[in-house]
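Possible race condition, two jobs.
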Amino acid sequence: MSGKGNAPVIIKRKKVVAGDGHHGGAWKVAYADFVTAMMAFFLLMWLLNATTEKQRKGIADFFNPTIPVNRISGGGDGSFGGDSVFTEETLAQNGTGAPEGQSASNQEGSGASSGASDAQSYTEVKEMLSAFSGESMAADSALRHIVTKVTDEGLIIELHDLEDEPLFAKGSDVPEPVLELLVDMMAEVFSIVTNKVALNGFMASQPVVVARNPVWNLSSQRADRLRVMLEEAAFPASRIQRVSGYADRRPVVSNPVSFRNNRVELILLRSDISAAQN
């Protein structure tokens, strides 16, 4: 009995190792949120770089409520008149926010309408320019001088020098025969639309430093000569919005003295720009 009473007590401790602790899901949620945020950020950066100002405004308008419900009163003729705050009559006549909401809606509608009209006009102009191809060898040769592009300002039709065929006599604003043919084409094409027109002149830089740099005066003189030629071709003078000379400040190629920088631009202005400048 005494031997059994003195027997050692053995305590067995079991060590539990949590081997799958690193498989928890909390960090995955945080990482997924981070990746989503980064993707949204890079998508935003891409949209800012790949869209025009007009397109960005359209995207912004998409996320703005068309009807300012939070600033419109209950509507109706007096208290509990029964009209809904969403009816067109209520928005137009009642509520503190109604006139602003109506004005914004009208502006969006008119802006979209003018934008669609301008796009149609630009398409018609480019199609008519393309139709000159094949009419004659002179027309085909003249079309080599034309580059078109659509910008936020409107449709730009650029007439530029070729290495073997300039638009103006060297160092002057005297037009060459090819420019006279091009201006006749432009006057005919512009007659199918009603947009206002802006005229710009550009020059290549001088290869040497001169005491009096002529490019400022010459670019303005060539743009103005283009205006005179258009008017002589029966183009309405009232449609010419402005005439500008930019000297050699906006080269289109990396070499500033290249003949390619000698050019004039005819811009069919967007309708909203023309209205704002009037």
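Job #2 (started ~2 s after job #1):
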Amino acid sequence: MRAVLRQPELDAAFKELVLTLPSETYLAEQLDEVDPQRIHAVREAMREQLARELHDDWQWAFESHRYNGGYQPDTLPAGRRALAGLALTYLCLDARSSGDAVWPGKAYQRFKDADNMTDRFNALSALVQSGHALATPALARFYSLFKSEELVLDKWFALQAGACDRSGQILPAVRQLLKHPDFNLKNPNRARSVIFSYCCANPAAFHRADAGGYVFWSEQVLELDAINPQVAARLARALDRWKKLVEPWRSAAREALVRVAAKADLSNDVREVVTRSLAD
């Protein structure tokens, strides 16, 4: 991986693509039996090893690709921004393990000084995904800057709902996001940015040992079903692959599906999804 990162003949966008690990969802799809927490633990251990072992290389990549002149929506600078963002994420991740305050501080400064959304959001994401304390003021600042931009605000919500779950903190955070003044369950994009980001794109946070994620899922499917059955049906598919889960997740997921299916006035859209899932 070091050879790829340092190879001068390779395009920055290609490097970023190659060096980005497969998602936990993709890894789970390759297995006959799925242990969500083991997948998360192994993938995070690999990310931490890459952050530690390639620290100097990530630093080189960031410093070499951070300046791209005035913003241009072209392929070359876009690739350079992407690689700089990936490098910053790994540097902040390593800082979490080592206790170093320098790189999180640089990420926060880049977040404040960025002249384009990509660099600003990449820096914010690096802080959030590494779980650094500076993520809190950065998130507040981002919200104050873009609270009137609906699509940007969707990204702000999704980033938090999809953050790395290290101590079971994501589900309580998601429940708080549902109480945010700018969250509206009747807005499909806003519902996707929070609920779908958690249930469908954050496996380790969703597949909790206490089944709290499944309880949350069933609550949201039922609540959405009364508002927008089509969106609720798409959310219901988050447990399509429940039979591949190892215990205790398999039994807990089935219980959640049964709970949804038991609702008397369930829409045809959602009933079709959960009935088929239970029968398959």
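The first helix runs from residue 2 to 6.
Logs attached separately.
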